[in-house]
Amino acid sequence: MMAVAGTGITRTQAVPGDRTAVPATPAIEATGLTKRYGNRLALQDVSLRVEAGECVGVFGPNGAGKSTLLRVLATLVRPTTGQIRCYGLEMPAQASELRRLIGAVGHQTYLYEDLTVWENLDFYARLYGLRDAAGRIQQVLDLLGLGDRAEDRVRALSRGLQQRLAIARAILHRPWVLLLDEPDTGLDREGRDRLAGIIGEQVGLGGAVVLTTHAVEFGCQVASRVLFLDRGRLRWERPAGEELVDELERQLRRRA
Amino acid sequence: MTAARQIYAIVRKDLLLELRAREQVIGMAVFALLTLVTFNFAFDLTGVDRAASGSGALWVAIIFAGLLGMGRAAAIDRQQGAWEGLLLSPADRGTIFLGKLASALLFIGIVEALALAVFAALFSLPVLRPMVLVVVGLGTVGLGTLGTLFSVMAATTRAREVMLPVLLFPLALPVVISAVRATTLLLTDRQSEVGPWISLLLGFDVLFLGISYLVFGHAVEE
Fold it and tell me: Which chain B residue has the Cα nearest residue A103?
């Protein structure tokens, strides 16, 4: 069996969903991340460390760099400077293996509107090479309350149901790291509860979650640690808790 | 094997999307047929230049239909950020490129089959010969390779419909010239002269395939 370099785990073990193989290294280690778009610095020297079994909430006003940070961590955007390691895997050298460990929800749903709910998930299951794809697809559909909409085309779903499907797509391959950029967008109360359950399960199983949201109360409820970004810089970080909600609201209002 | 499965998944998905939305092949086919019919009425097909005019008409139809299809394919992938979903998957960038190229070649191939049949009927030229089909195939691979690379790059720009032909034209020129010359020679029964043009086509195909496979990753990353 080939070893996945830097992780101490074998390639065979590193199949999605195999939580017994989660190594003891930090889930995410990012140092000195800077991203420049022309003259604008979207991220400035951001470093963060997320442990396995931790959910980190990233807050900040619009344009603070939250989405850029998550896109960099998701390997969608190459940082101008800085390094990223995910469970010991290094970007960009081990990008393909690293992507196998990551599940991401973005501002867009990453879905094909003219395919059905099932066909969308089946496509991604094939890309990830999932064993028992049909069983896993049914499982995530049930988890997100979409079991009876499998044959519907995505364009026929409401925005909230499309968002649920986007979350289903992100967790389909049982990723070790979930990167959730405003995943609660368009979700109703039930959808939000289901999302909180998924985050809780991810953390409980030793995975990691990085989450951005404008719903401060929800974010503080599901996260164990909070980071505050502003104008591309990491301003502060604290343990999450109810007492942080008012403080965060105040800071976000002040910088809006 | 994993890469082959991923390429199959991409082609299967593109085919399913086309069967549902019919946004590519019908438009490409109509465009190709319209070009052939227009050229058929515009040229004097009784003259000695019938083969030259005919091969020109055929390649204009293929090139423009191909451009239309590949541009549309990139636009479909961009809807709802589905393209980023693909980039988030463990499929490496080269594999994604090969998957998209295979889809493009499949759709262009379907349109070419129809266009060649109509061309044979309208222009009364022996276009359905194995060697002509080889030249059409090689030319299509060259155009499809560059088109797949540049359609993805152009899709991120504001003037994407304009950018694809602008980016494609200078590099595709040797493929177009070789394909048109080789087709003309074959249609005028000058098979003995066609060898160098086919070698040139093959060379450019290999070169463009190799380069596109290698640079695709850089082309798709922000």
Answer: B88
